[in-house]
Amino acid sequence: MKDFLIDLFEYHHLLNQKLADLFLENEDTINERCIFLFIHSQTAQQIWNERILENKSELKENYSLEKFKEIDKVNYSNSMKILKEYDLNKKISYKNSKGVEFTNSVQEILFHAANHFSHHRGQIISDLRASGIEPIITDYIYYKR
Q1: Residue 67: its pLDDT value, please?
Q2: Is the pTM of this model over 0.85?
Q3: Sign of the Cα pseudo-torsion (103, 87, 140, 27, in order)
Q4: Which of 13, 61, 139, 145 is the most buried (most CB within 10 A)?
């Protein structure tokens, strides 16, 4: 499972980098929702990584398109660190944004983060098409080819 999660996060990282490039190329026509969804996805990954790593940093939910690639690289690096150094069965206790405490395994948390990316990337792709921007191909099978 660890190898699969590493592959999944590599896939997400590659697509996030390509999406950031596409956003920059179409800066004048990207809608606010696309930007929000990308930032939201990155912020969520940062939160999950920090819960596992027991780190706290300043969350920035409003940053420029130019920072998209940089933020994604930091998140990717932290996710890879987790995958290389942590037991996937290790239980992590954390509080959600409402202060309610939960416990999940590292594997569950990382799979959730990867699934969260897929969900919001689909929304982004739909919004890009609606804005007349040809989106990148995001299917996992294309990545594997």
Answers
A1: 86
A2: yes
A3: positive
A4: 13
